[in-house]
Amino acid sequence: MKFRFALAIAASAILAAAGTAVAQQPIIIKFSHVVAVDTPKGKAAEYFKKLAEERTKGRVKIEVYPNSQLFKDGEEMEAVQLGSVQMLAPSLAKFGPLGVREFEVFDLPYIFDDYNQLHTVTSGPVGQGLFKKIESKGLVGLAYWDNGFKVMSANKPIRVPTDYKGLKMRVQSSKVLADQMKALGSIPQSMAFSEVYQALQTGVVDGTENPPSNFSTQKMQEVQKYLALTNHGYLGYAVIVNKKFWDGLPADIRTTLEGAMKDATKYANDIAQKDNDDAIEVVRKSGKTEIITLTPDQKAAMKKALVAVHKENESRIGKDTLAEVYKETGFKP
Ligand code: LMR
Questions:
Q1: Residue 108: what are its φ and ψ, rounded to 5°?
Q2: Is the pLDDT of residue 3 over 90?
Q3: Cα–Cα distance, 226 to 207 (Å, whole number)
Q4: CA–CA separation, 139 vs 159, rounded Å?
Q5: Which pLDDT score is estimated for 81?
Q6: Which numbered atom of ligand 1 lies nearest the CA of 192?
Q7: Most buried residue, 67, 126, 201, 266, by CB count within 10 Å?
Q8: pLDDT on residue 15
Q9: How many C-beta neighbours within 10 Å does residue 34 have?
Q10: 3-state class of 188 per DSSP?
Q11: How distant is the alpha carbon of residue 20 from its chain centre?
Q12: What's the 171 CA to ligand 1 centre distance in angstroms?
């Protein structure tokens, strides 16, 4: 009798231990992205990981996969919709293929003069409205993270629109960006970020555009002789999660993660400008790429050639979205 009683006690103790062990399995969030760690997005993703794991006291584990390790462009959107990963921070230029073309308003050349104008739009009805729109795609938008203003690069000096004539220029999967390159007389080639370095090295493309932080961390100075400080457009990100996963989280965990995301967003947007300024110095010091500063006339010629893209894409982006952004930025097409 005593033996049976002891056996029952032991069995329930083992079961209890097993139960607790299962209960204590951390919630895993796979966070996949396509850029290097030493970039505004790469650093912000690591910072979010640190805050989220600390504040949930280990109940959540963030696995960050940079450099397209897990999924590259063209794959990662489907992966997050299927739940193969839980979190992404794609460029705003990559939401068109998802069917939310309004995001391409952010790609329009010269539409933002500075980060403040951009933040007015992302935190305002347009930015929040876009997050509403992606819910029907099974996604939740958590935040907008900055990178910066793009520069153009090639293996010949590029100062005015005619210098771009006939060049094959890599772009992200955005019709607005393809039209932008066509407006310069060059040939747009859309491809995944992870393929750009090799495409430049082998001559599949002649040039590209990106914020300096992406240019230098991908070592494009090794395969591009000229970089023009055009600041002709903005590149930033939307941090998104799988909706079913996010809605299914325990409420306290979700609240804690929202707080961590808020602080990581402030961090991302605080470091972006300096990261890009530092990147230009890295390129300059490499001595491999000549940095071109445009004269006011050259900048005016670029702007004149590129603003035509706004009208061309008015119906694609949506008249209301465009009008609202023009109102908030004061942009005069
Ligand atoms: C690109 O494809 O050029 C960028 O969107 C990469 C990134 O995420 O910054």
A1: -60, 130
A2: no
A3: 9
A4: 41
A5: 98
A6: 2
A7: 126
A8: 61
A9: 26
A10: strand
A11: 39
A12: 9
Q: What is the pLDDT of residues 29-74, one digit of tens each?
A: 999 999 999 999 999 999 999 999 999 999 999 999 999 999 999 9
> Is residue 21 predicted with pLDDT exceeding 60?
no
Residues with CB under 6 A from ligand 1: 34-35, 73, 91, 147, 172, 193, 210, 214
Check pLDDT > 90 for residue 189. yes
In angstroms, the CA 234 to CA 121 distance is 13
Give the pLDDT of residue 16: 64
Ligand 1: nearest atom to the Cα of 34: 8
What's the half-sphere exposure (Cβ side, CA atoms, 13 Å) at 17?
6
Calpha distance 52→29 (Å, rounded): 10
Would you give the distance in Å from CA 302 to the centre of its chain? 25
For residue 289, the SS3 value is coil
Residue owning the nearest CA to atom 2 of ligand 1:
193
